[in-house]
Structures are given as C-alpha cells and as structure tokens.
Write a structure and sequence with these properties.
The chain contains 15 helices and two strands. It is mostly helical. Strands 1-2 form a two-stranded antiparallel sheet. The chain starts with 7 loop residues before the first helix and ends with a helix.
Length: 314
C-alpha cells in the first residue's frame, strides 16, 4: 500500500504557535498579509534549493554540494555581469551551465560509478568550495541594478523572488505528476530493481534528477547575488542550505529512502522554517535556541510520519 506523506499537521501546529506567540507578544502587526508575504520572501533561496533537493531525494539520492554551488553561482554571476546590464544574459547562462555540469558529474558518480551519494556530493562540495576559496576571498564583482529587481521587484504585490520560487515549484510539480520522467523518478526511488525490470532506465533518471537539483541551486545563487548585489564564497555555506534543504524536504513528507514525497510538501517545510526564523527574530530569542527548536521539529515530524505510516500499513 502506498502511503502519501503529508506536512499538514506540522505546518498547522507551527502556524498556531507562530500566531499565538505574536499575539501574546502584543505585536499583531506582524500578522498582516504584507508582513506574512515578506516572511516567506526571505526564504526564497532555501525554497529553490529544497525543490531541487526533493527531486534528488525522490530517486533515493541526496546532494550535499548545493551550498557550495550556491556560493559559486553567486560569485560567477557577479563576476561575469560586473555591473553591466548587457552581461545579465551571459551571466545567467554561465551560472546555469555551471549548475548543469555539476549536476551531471554528481549524477554520473552516483548512477554510473556507484559512488555513495553522500560521498560523491560531499566530495564535489569540497572541490567547489576549495577552488572558490582559492580564487575569491571576499565579495567579488557586482550585479547591475536591473538584475537586483529579482529580489527588490514585485508582481501584483508579491515579491519577485517568491514568484520565481512558486513558478519553479509549480514546474517541478507538473513534471513529477504529468510526465514520464516524473513517474520514473518515483519508480526509481521507490523500487529501483522493479523499475529496471519494467524497462525504466534508472541511471538516466538519477542523473536527470541531480542535474535538476543543481540547476535549482544555481537559481538560488542567482537570487542571492541579486539580493546582495554581489557574490561571496561563503553565502551558501553560511546559509547551511545543504542540510536545511534536506530538513525541510523531510518535514514536508519526502522520505529519505526515496519514492515518496512532493514539492508542495517541501514548500510547507520551508514555510515552517520561515515562521521559526521570523518568530525568533521578533521575540529576540538566541540563535542557538532557534537551531535547537528546528532540530526538535525535524525529529518530531519524522517520528509523527513514521508512526502514521506504521498505522496505515498495519
């Protein structure tokens, strides 16, 4: 029996805590729609990364190179554009090409060379971060003001970055639910041997999932370059986008063993983290306590899902 994961309970409890704590603090203005949209807007980079990470996890893989790739993408975009509006398109294409190459190498290492995905992508992360740190030690290059509209602009009152995230999530969801590749992703992650016997080329599916994962991380790097106006070799690492993208996918119901989960659940997990960050900032709570609370939520979400799965299967 196939059990679909659901992020609803965790999201509902987190939202209730968020609303209750803000009301008790006497700062109800933070519940206004524009402020709530702003809270979600600040989680765009994590959301973009997590959408890609979800695809990798669905094929029973994982990608620890996304944080380093985000840093490299932001630096590459800033250096290529160098403040020149005419270089925006070449800069974006260069970053997407970098993402595609990194994803292709990761996928080939995992699917063809049979290297454990944790080791393969961690090694890739070290290669990227080491090379980046050897070349750049501080902010490098600059993006033109027009490109910064990706962060500062809006569409019908919705931040442009949030529009980008929703568009990427919608495209990924449609791909998973309506295309042959999407069904192959679930099959390859759920039961690789049965998928191979059914004629599915699981190796290509794993490679494709890793390429898409890296492209999403590259988009996150472009967004952060627009947000900061430049690129720096530490922005991906300091944002802990590798581990947090895995965490929000798990909170959203994507199973680490592969084959079960979805993009919208992952976005619900991103919303949970966004609310935690916002609430702790409003209340002035210590950053270390925030990490502890995040850890508790992750463990509780996985435990609740496991318990629900056992009841349904039984």
């Amino acid at each position: 029996m196939r059990v679909r994961a659901g992020p609803g309970p965790v999201l509902a409890v987190s939202a209730a805590i968020y609303v209750g704590a803000i009301l008790l603090s006497g700062q109800a203005q933070y519940l206004l729609p524009e402020n709530l949209v702003s809270v979600l807007g600040r989680a765009v980079a994590l959301g973009l990364t997590a959408v890609g990470q979800t695809l990798a996890i669905l094929v029973a893989s994982i990608d620890l190179s996304v944080a380093a790739l985000i840093s490299a993408s932001a630096v590459l975009a800033s250096v290529v554009m160098d403040g020149d509006p005419a270089m925006v398109v070449p800069g974006v294409l260069a970053v997407l090409a970098l993402g595609a190459v990194v994803g292709l190498v990761n996928g080939l290492l995992v699917a063809k060379a049979r290297v454990n995905p944790l080791i393969a992508t961690l090694g890739m992360a070290l290669v990227i971060q080491g090379g980046l740190s050897a070349v750049v030690s501080n902010f490098a290059g600059a993006v033109p003001p027009a490109f910064q509209l990706l962060d500062q602009g809006s569409l019908l009152g919705v931040p442009a970055g949030l529009v980008l995230l929703l568009a990427v999530a919608a495209a990924a969801s449609l791909m998973l639910n309506l295309t042959r590749f999407g069904s192959d992703v679930f099959a390859a992650g759920g039961n690789p041997e049965a998928a191979r016997l059914a004629g599915i080329r699981t190796g290509r599916t794993v490679v494709g999932a890793h390429v898409l994962c890296s492209l999403c991380a590259a988009l996150a790097g472009l967004y952060l370059a627009a947000r900061l106006g430049s690129g720096a070799p530490w922005i991906g690492r300091d944002g802990v986008y590798d581990l947090e993208s895995i965490a929000v996918a798990v909170i959203g119901g994507t199973v680490l063993a592969g084959g079960r989960g979805g993009v919208w659940g992952t976005l619900a997990g991103v919303a949970v983290f966004a609310m935690i960050d916002s609430l702790f900032n409003i209340l002035g709570v210590d950053a270390f306590a925030k990490q502890v609370f995040r850890g508790v939520i992750i463990v509780a979400a996985v435990a609740a899902y496991a318990a629900g799965t056992r009841r349904l299967v039984a």
